[in-house]
Design brief:
Helices cover 41% and strands 18% of the residues. The protein contains twelve helices and twelve strands. The protein has a ten-stranded mixed beta sheet, sandwiched between helices. Strands 6-7 form a two-stranded antiparallel sheet. 48% of the residues are buried. The chain binds 3-isopropylmalic acid and magnesium ion.
Length: 358
């Protein structure tokens, strides 16, 4: 059976980095004799410009038909004036929610070759390997009612709703406990239960589920403290479980510890392991089109796709080893370059990974 993959390049540096990921995908296709069927559609600002919607029907239709999606990034200042419901980000959020991709895996792993690029002292981050499990289709990102309304006194008021049902909490908690079982068996659930009722329930449900995983040590932490601990002593964490908004914020912080946000892949899965794979970084409008963006997060997202959706650990580790080997050889894009190394372009980095695979 062929592997049906949808490519959504998006905006800003999206097309540049996805092109390199496709080069790597083609290389593994030949190396492992994979039967791949590639499709491409528009998403985000590019889709809005061409078709007037950040998530055109054709894109949603194709997305439901394929096994996996590779996405670059969406958004940018060009669309900042666009009505909220048509902003590029709505395309991404619509895909996540429309495909029920509730389980978001964001591994933050430091490649030893990049220890110097971390914002923290090498001793604090050496061998850093954290997995953030972020709930992706609920919480304040999707809660209703939401909007901006005008009060009787003429003043405007913005409002959102932070809501999680027990079933939403429990399904992501199971995923996180199971992920912890395959790693260091420590799970830290991050909430704000000293203030927000929705996370009081979150803490209760997660604690109840913990009894089904006696081999995993569960701790709880308030999100403000978690942000501080990530910067103070990040190696205390194994798996972090949290909701949509806190996961968004903490995963950017964790990314920086590993040297560059340009290194971090992600997987967003539904309950059948159908998945969308994207770097956790954005469209980087300031460097878009210059050919200097780091494609490794997107390439590593392809590895995650083989691990989670296609169940091919061999293909996933081949890609990860190739990335490791180009870093060993000193290839660095501008975001991770050190004093002694030569800066390579986006394309050169992609080609180096391809050669290393072959
Ligand atoms: C991310 C991004 C998105 C999010 C944006 C682009 C909507 O920041 O994937 O982390 O907030 O989830
Ligand atoms: Mg984010």
């Amino acid at each position: 059976m062929s592997q049906k993959i949808l490519v959504l390049k998006g905006d800003g540096i999206g097309p540049e980095i996805v092109n390199e990921a496709i080069k790597v995908l083609t290389a593994v296709q030949h190396k492992f004799g994979l039967d791949i069927e590639l499709h491409e559609e528009l998403i985000g600002g590019a889709a809005f410009d061409a078709l007037g919607s950040p998530l055109p029907d054709a894109t949603m239709k194709k997305a439901t038909e394929v096994d996996a999606i590779i996405l670059g990034a969406v958004g940018g200042p060009k669309w900042s004036g666009v009505d909220g419901s048509l902003r590029p980000e709505k395309g991404l959020l619509g895909l996540r929610s429309g495909l029920d991709l509730f389980a978001n895996f964001r591994p933050a792993r430091l490649y030893p070759q990049l220890a110097e690029a971390s914002s923290l002292k090498p001793a604090l981050v050496s061998d850093l390997d954290i997995l953030i499990v972020r709930e992706l289709t609920g919480g304040i990102y999707f809660g209703e009612p939401r909007g901006i309304r005008t009060l009787d006194n003429g003043e405007r008021e913005g409002f959102n709703t932070y809501v999680y049902s027990e079933s939403e909490i429990s399904r992501i908690a199971h995923i996180a406990f199971q992920a912890a079982q395959k790693r260091g068996r420590r799970l830290c659930s991050v909430d704000k239960s000293n203030v927000l009722e929705v996370t009081v329930l979150w803490r209760e449900v997660v604690s109840d589920i913990a009894t089904q995983y006696p081999d995993v040590e569960l701790t709880h932490m308030y999100v403000d403290n978690a942000a501080m601990q990530l910067i103070r002593a990040p190696k205390q964490f194994d798996v972090i479980l949290t909701g949509n908004m806190f996961g968004d914020i903490l995963s950017d912080a964790a990314a920086m510890l590993t040297g560059s946000i340009g290194m971090l892949p992600s997987a967003s899965l539904n309950s059948d392991n159908k998945g969308m794979y994207e770097p956790i970084h954005g469209t980087a409008p300031d460097i878009a089109g210059k050919g200097i963006a780091n494609p490794l997060a997107t390439i590593l997202s392809v590895a995650m796709m083989y691990r989670y959706t296609f169940n091919r650990e061999d293909v996933a580790s081949a890609i990860e080893q190739a990335v490791n080997s180009v870093l060993d050889q000193g290839y660095r894009t501008a975001d991770i370059v050190g004093d002694a190394q030569k800066t390579v372009s986006t394309e050169e980095m992609g080609s180096a990974v391809v050669s290393s695979l072959q």
